[in-house]
Design goal:
Elements lengths: L1 H25 L5 H22 L2 H8 L3 H7 L3 H15 L12 H7 L6 H12 L4 H4 L1 H4 L5 H16 L9 H17 L7 H17 L10
Helix pairs in contact: 1-10, 2-3, 2-5, 2-7, 10-11, 11-12
């Protein structure tokens, strides 16, 4: 009983931490409902015009926000796009309540929200239109577009290790990197959605075998 309470406490603390992260990333104290409208407008324009064709004025007009308001929140177009991509990824995931099915595959899959064909196509257009964003802004890209997802994945994998489902020597950080790297490759290179069918294959064929049977570590040979 105490164990369940402890796990619930850990999950609650983690969700609070993930939920707070965008507020810190986005900057000064502000009306966060307004932020969501601006970020959604950014995604819409990225899907229509791409990163190179998008301007702050276009986003301000779409979101019905003043330019001064925009620049108080984001000092550059690149920073705005970074936060919009983070927001888009969060909206595709169930991060508000950590699943606890007792099975790592089911927990990981439960994070993916169902999305319509239109939503999937819009996301692909956004990724296809990023153009020079990644090459010109590596410091922003490395700043955590996928970090909310990685935070939750780490917790789910640590839970699995705690109940003996995967090895305590499993390279959890590497597994999290594989997930986000494949999500990026799937969208940017293959122009396909990161759906549950693909994710199930990734988990069963690559992630679980690696997490259950990691390479022998130096500590294991002593």
């Amino acid at each position: 009983m105490n164990k369940n309470k402890n796990e619930e406490s850990i999950g609650s603390d983690l969700v609070d931490k993930v939920a707070e992260k965008p507020a810190k990333t986005l900057g000064r104290k502000r009306d966060h409902t307004r932020d969501a409208k601006i970020l959604e407008a950014t995604i819409d324009i990225l899907a229509e015009a791409g990163f190179d064709g998008m301007t702050m004025d276009m986003v301000a007009a779409r979101a019905k926000a003043g330019k001064a308001t925009m620049y108080r929140r984001w000092s550059s177009k690149a920073e705005l796009v970074r936060d919009a991509l983070t927001w888009m990824n969060r909206n595709h995931l169930e991060l508000d309540l950590l699943p606890d099915t007792g099975n790592l595959q089911s927990d990981l899959l439960a994070l993916l929200k169902p999305q319509s064909i239109e939503e999937g196509e819009r996301k692909l257009r956004v990724l296809a239109g990023l153009g020079s964003f990644f090459s010109q802004n590596p410091e922003l890209v490395n700043g955590g577009i996928f970090e909310p997802w990685a935070v939750v994945n780490r917790e789910l994998m640590h839970r699995a290790a705690g109940r003996g489902e995967i090895s305590t020597h499993a390279d959890i950080e590497m597994a999290c990197q594989v997930i986000t790297s494949m999500a990026s490759y799937r969208g940017l290179v293959q122009r396909k959605t990161f759906d549950k069918h693909f994710y199930t294959s990734l988990i069963d064929v690559i992630l679980l075998p690696a997490l259950k049977n990691p390479s022998t570590s130096p500590n294991e040979t002593e």
